[in-house]
Design goal:
Blueprint (H helix, E strand, L loop, with lengths): L1 H4 L2 H21 L4 H12 L10 H21 L3 H6 L1 H25 L4 H12 L3 H11 L5 H27 L10 H22 L1 H10 L3 H21 L4 H11 L6 H25 L3 H6 L1 H25 L4 H10 L5 H13 L4 H28 L20 E4 L3 H12 L4 E5 L2 H9 L5 E2 L5 H6 L7 E4 L4 H14 L4 E6 L2 H9 L4 E4 L2 H14 L4 H23 L35
Helix pairs in contact: 2-3, 3-14, 3-19, 4-13, 4-14, 6-7, 6-9, 6-16, 7-9, 7-18, 7-19, 8-9, 9-18, 10-12, 10-13, 11-12, 12-13, 16-17, 16-19, 18-19, 25-26
Length: 597
């Protein structure tokens, strides 16, 4: 029994069980999944139930959740869009960083910390938890709005600033005088070299790599390739002394214009969600309740004072730079916490002798408590503020959410359909599983993405939940049927339009509740017949009238067939399969030699 109790399998079951039981309760109470994960971590951690005694081991693995989350965010950040945020990053972000750093240093010093310790503790608290803030923005639907994009820009700057902060901590350390002066410069050169290597790989290697993997048509290989890119980028940045999350973010940005963007997002999503939840569990486990009890006054005063000081600084900077009261308040309520990079900074300061282990534990407890309380504080304040006092500006609604169409399949049929849409300047998202087609389309200026339309996660990543129309233009009946089933169940607000293979397929689509369908050859065959009549002496008007007659009779027959009656056999019940029957009996009887053998 002891072996079973200490087994990793039992620990995994306990961890998943705690998350499954606690998180839904917190979501039902509208407290958010993040706070639920943190509470579950405290519950199973070494200081309550004691099921886990080494939170650092969990955090080491769970940090990959943050890495993958930043990769998915990077996929949404096209380079042009990221460049457009440069003013926010180096304007608002830098001002907020300096203001918060100064205010928090003063608070930590007033609480009795030594000046150097106060500075390190404050700068660790300045580095807001990217994982928690991104999760809260994602849950509230604010991530794509301009206010959410400002928060993303600030978080990106904070991820970048961890590198010079670590170098500054090494320079401030007591042992700095006896260390080699060239080491910081060597570390900076190494980091820059790794960054340039990642950019080069993203520019020239990633797209060809995924094109080769996609040609194999093995889903597991493409998923493995996505994981390789994310973890490889994180490893490269770690080797350069930079943030793993920063490496994953850059990899996502480099692939944001790739044809495989939606497929990659869908492949990474399951790993991201699970590991990110594990990260929050690990943070909850890391909260040293014994240390909190021994230094209760310092920790409680530190949490309240530092959260208040940071929130006030964020609000003041926002208002000074022209933000509205609502936007500045939103950001102040969203970001008054420390983050996961604080643990890295504190550990480096403790290792270099700049901060004692006791100071490390106290400031770590303050950061963890702030990460637990910030989502709760934000939810409480937003409940108290009436919605009418928080207007949503029309400009905050992304224009791509209106009038959009998702096209699945870009073969001969889909290409012709797209011409009418492009002529009206309609924003069309196209996905296809034909690698050669994706490449050929890009050569002619079309932008289509590699993606399997029979997968719900790929459709969601491609924006099916926001599309007004989902045009299913694939050339396979079974594939079209599968996509229709998914669309009807998961995207009821979208209008489904289906390219049907033949009459039987069209009947099946109507039976499934898809009234908008087109048989792929019917109209082209009518046109061909009209041209043949003209060649045989009929006038264009006569040929068009005959085509209209055939079209009308076909519609009448189709309606009767939907009722279970075969028009061609004068009303046989239990109609099974439509048969091609001419509208007019041929006058020329076939000769035996005319029969195809």
């Amino acid at each position: 029994m002891t072996a079973i109790a200490n087994s990793q399998l039992l620990q995994a079951v306990a961890l998943l069980g705690a998350a499954v039981l606690v998180v839904p309760v917190f979501r039902a109470l509208k407290l958010g999944a993040v706070l639920g994960y943190l509470f579950a971590g405290v519950l199973v951690g070494p200081f309550v139930l004691g099921w886990f005694t080494d939170p650092e081991a969990i955090l080491g693995l769970a940090e990959l959740g943050v890495v993958m989350f930043l990769f998915v965010i990077g996929l949404e950040m096209r380079p042009a869009h990221l460049w457009a945020l440069r003013g926010t990053i180096y304007g608002l972000g830098l001002c907020q960083l300096v203001a918060c750093g100064a205010a928090l240093t003063a608070v930590a010093w007033a609480l009795g910390a030594a000046p150097r310790v106060a500075f390190v503790g404050a700068m660790g608290f300045v580095l807001t938890s990217t994982a928690i803030v991104m999760q809260l923005l994602s849950e509230s639907g604010e991530l794509s709005r301009p206010a959410g994009q400002k928060v993303v820009a600030i978080l990106l700057l904070e991820d970048l600033i961890i590198v010079p902060l670590l170098a500054l901590v090494a320079w401030m350390a007591p042992a700095h005088e006896s260390s080699a002066t060239g080491i910081p410069w060597l570390a900076a050169i190494t980091g820059l070299g790794c960054l340039l290597a990642l950019l080069a790989a993203g520019r020239w290697l990633l797209e060809p790599l995924f094109r080769v993997l996609a040609r194999s048509r093995v889903r597991e290989v493409l998923s493995a390739g996505a994981l390789l890119v994310v973890l490889g980028a994180a490893l490269l940045m770690q080797l350069g002394g930079l943030s793993m999350a920063l490496g994953a973010f850059l990899a996502g940005v480099l692939l944001s214009q790739s044809s495989f963007r939606h497929q990659l997002e869908a492949d990474i999503e399951p790993f991201r969600g699970l590991l990110l939840g594990l990260f929050f569990l690990g943070i909850g486990m890391a909260l040293d309740l014994h240390m909190v009890r021994e230094h209760l006054l310092f920790v409680l005063l530190g949490v309240v004072a530092m959260m208040l000081a940071k929130a006030l600084a964020i609000y003041a900077v926002g208002r000074a730079l022209g933000d509205s009261h609502a936007d500045a308040m939103d950001r102040a309520l969203l970001m008054p916490m420390g983050g996961e990079f604080a643990f890295v900074l504190y550990a480096g300061a403790a290792a270099s002798g700049l901060m004692s282990q006791e100071d490390n534990a106290r400031f770590t407890a303050i950061v963890v408590l702030s990460m637990a309380l910030a989502p709760l504080l934000s939810a409480a304040v937003h409940r108290l503020i009436p919605k009418a006092a928080r207007p949503v500006l029309p400009a905050d609604v992304p224009p791509c959410l209106t009038g959009s169409i998702l096209m699945i399949g870009f073969g001969r049929f889909g290409q012709v359909v797209s011409q009418s849409l492009l002529a009206r300047d309609i924003d069309v998202t196209v996905i296809d599983t034909d690698v050669e087609m994706v490449q050929a389309a890009s050569d002619f200026g079309f932008k289509i993405y590699y993606g399997d339309g029979t997968r719900l996660d790929v459709l969601e990543a491609a924006g099916a939940d926001k599309a007004q129309v989902i045009a299913i233009c694939v050339d396979s009946r079974s594939v079209a049927d599968t996509i229709v089933d998914i669309g009807k169940e998961s995207f009821p607000n979208a209008t489904l339009m289906v390219r049907t293979y033949d009459r039987e397929h069209a009947l099946r689509m109507v039976a499934q509740g898809v009234p908008v369908h087109v048989r792929e050859t019917f109209e082209s065959a009518l046109r061909f017949g009209s041209m043949a009549l003209v060649q045989l002496g009929a006038t264009p008007t006569e040929a068009e009238a005959i085509a209209d007659l055939v079209r009308r009779r076909d519609a009448e027959r189709f309606a009767r067939e939907l009722e279970g009656i075969d028009w061609a056999t004068a009303g046989l019940a239990n109609f099974k399969r439509p048969r091609p029957v001419p509208w007019t009996t041929p006058t020329h009887q076939p000769h035996p030699s005319d029969t195809l053998r």
